[in-house]
Every structure is written in C-alpha cells, then in structure tokens.
Amino acid sequence: PAHAVYFATYEAVKQAMGGNASGHHPLAAATSGACATIASDAFMNPFDVIKQRMQVHGSTYRSITECARTTFRNEGLRAFYVSYPTTLTMTVPFTALQFTAYESLTKLMQNHRQPGYDPLTHCTAGGLAGGIAAAATTPLDVVKTLLQTRGVSSDPEIRLARGLVSAASIIWRREGGKGFFRGMKARVVAAAPSTAICWSAYEVAKSYFIRVENEK
C-alpha cells in the first residue's frame, strides 16, 4: 500500500508539473519525489516506529501487536507520529535527491536513444541514485533513529531528547562529526540494491500497463 501511494503521488505530481514532457526536468523530479514521500510516510511512520523499537538491543517485545499496544498505552497515539516531522526532514531530501539523480542518470545513459523501457539503464540508474541519496542523508537518518528509539533507551539524556536540534546536539557532544556518519557504508550498501530493484520493478510494470493501454 505504501508503494502504491508513493508512486501514484509521484506520477500525479510529475504529470502536473510537466515532468513527462521531453527534456530534462530536475525540479519536477525533485518536487514529485518530495510529495510522494510525504504521502507514503504518513501511512508508514507508525510501522517504522514499531520496527525501530523492536530492533533495539534488549527489547522485550515479543510481537508487533505487543509493541504497538504497549507504546499506545504508555505514550499515546502521538508516539507513533512524534518522529514524523523528523522523518520528513530525512526522507524528503533523500527522495528529492534520489528522484533527481534517477531522472538525470536515466536521461544521460539513454543519451540520444528513444526514451522507453531499458532494464539495464533503469537498474543501474536506480542503484546509483539510491546510493548517492543514502550517503548524503546519513546524518539525518542517525538523528531520526535516536529520536525513534528514545522511548526505550536506558540513557536519561536520550529519553529527554525533544527534537531534531536536541538529538543532533547529543550526537555532536558525544561523538563529534563522525557520529553523524555512523553506519553510512551499510546504509549505502542496503539502499543501492533496494532502489535498483524498486525502480526496475516500477519501470517494468509501468511499461507493461502502457503497452496494454496502447493496444486497446
């Protein structure tokens, strides 16, 4: 469902901004990507919060349902969206960068060839775009993770973190600049194949439905 919302929003905004016209349209790509993640994150944020809490070392949650119920009982509905603004602070730049890079790389790799479905181009451009975006937004992801896991942290200072600036100051004071890039390599390694597969699947499905529509 989240990906359906994601790509439906992307195509709608891209079309509205003229991104499907011939030529290079980085602004349309960035804007449509940003709008897509705003819509899909509203749906996915509660699940992301639950996942983060269950992944924390020492977590006592035995199931997704137990984690959701305990979080709601102890912290209320707000706990599932307390990190939403911070999540958008990370995902909007990530998606805007990814979509802009993907559209640019796709056009560059296709060069003067007729635009259309090209598995190698879409897979390569998707992987590179995801890697670039993941590396550039690692600091924001580190801050987001701290905020999402503060409710189950045994560290009093982390539990009292109240927003982006507060979380960032804790990381800076304890680890310095390198703390903001903790896990960057793993993030890039995870993101590149994921976005390569995602874009490849999206483009092949899009190509199929366009062909079916044209045959009617």
Word description of this protein:
The protein has helices at 2-16, 26-55, 64-75, 84-110, 119-136, 138-148, 156-159, 164-175, 184-215. The chain is an all-alpha fold and 216 residues long. The longest helix is centred in the last third of the chain and has 32 residues, at 184-215. The chain is elongated, with a radius of gyration of 19 Å. It starts with a helix and ends with a helix. 34% of the residues are buried. The model has no long low-confidence stretch (mean pLDDT 87). This is Fe(2+) transporter.
Indicate the CATH architecture: Alpha/alpha barrel
Distance between the termini: 27 Å
The CATH topology annotation reads as: Mitochondrial carrier fold
* CATH H-level superfamily title: Mitochondrial carrier domain
Largest sheet: none
